[in-house]
Amino acid sequence: MNLLITLRPSSGVDLGRWVLQHHQIPYTERPHAPIFHVLALKIWGVGARTTRFT
Amino acid sequence: MTASGDKLKGNPDIVHYVESNMESAKRLIPDAATEPDLHKDVTEFTDWLYDKVSGDVVNYAYYYLLKYKRTIWPSLTTGVPWYEKLVWFIAFPIMRKLMYAGLKLDNTVADAALNDIYKTFDTIDAMLADGRQYLSGGRLTYSDISVAALYGPMILADGYQGFLPNQAACPAFMARVFQELRQRPTGQFIQRIYDTHRPVGHG
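Output (structure tokens, whole complex):
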């Protein structure tokens, strides 16, 4: 199962959910509180996020 | 993290991963080879949007909403591990101070962010003035859902799945801003895209 590590209220996160739901990609969301979400992403080995296409 | 163990770092990565082998007509990011003009339009628009948004909604919403613990509490803590909730409950003022410091938030930054949000709405209002139903091309693309999701919190969009505060619980000065933006063409566009194109979540 795909896993989405999130800061729940984030607008970028809702965009990511939307993409997955639009294409009916199943996923599990694991939300974290602010500040803790940064730690969680580091633990999962995900650093700075990408936001641009070009 | 994908089921096969790939680590995707952001929405462009997610879209590329999901749509890589999909026919262009179904893609939110049209295929560069078969729909080059629309691909360029969507990627350039959404990059512009990210540059414009980059922090504006965060800076405005967090700065002011973090002053109202009861209002922002469900957004911060719904579904999070109990120990994270406990730390926020006990140390809310300290956590708020850490967030203000980490995001370099103050009154000036928050008010400038709101001003930028109004300017971006001006630009998108102008795009919508020709009566178009979608921002790029004649079908739903990543442009539309990006505007909807990224600015959804600023109109307290129905259908947003990130536990936005209840408008009735927001301070009056913020409720007025949300209401004003919701009535703008861009605000109405955002809600229409949520109403007509947002699937029910299954996360």
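The first strand of chain A starts at residue 2 and ends at 7.
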